[in-house]
Amino acid sequence: MKTITVEELAGRTGVPLIDVRERDEYAAGHVPGAVNLPLSELGDRLAELPAEAFDVICQAGGRSGRAVEALSMRGHDATNVEGGTGEWIAQGRPVVQP
């Protein structure tokens, strides 16, 4: 499974970011630019995934890791963000709260 750190994520540009946390978690605060596709809905929303390579984030890296493994087996070029949104926030990085 491909992985990147939060530091690497912060330096990336032009790579879509999918947040697989539940809607309420996402609404409480997410990485700028992240698109919410909850893991619980992902199977029904595969058509919404980017055609190009993308990163996947959750709260700590567990759910996104499971998503990346499953999506990779389906042919998607997905990368897990280790440490997730929790690490992003812990580092004092900007968060969007709609």
From TrEMBL:
Residues 11-97 form the Rhodanese domain. One of its GO terms (molecular function) is thiosulfate-cyanide sulfurtransferase activity. It holds the Pfam family Rhodanese. Gene3D superfamilies: Rhodanese-like domain (3.40.250.10). SUPFAM superfamilies: Rhodanese/Cell cycle control phosphatase. Coiled coil: none annotated. This is Rhodanese-like domain protein. It comes from Microbacterium esteraromaticum. The lineage of its organism: Bacteria, Bacillati, Actinomycetota, Actinomycetes, Micrococcales.
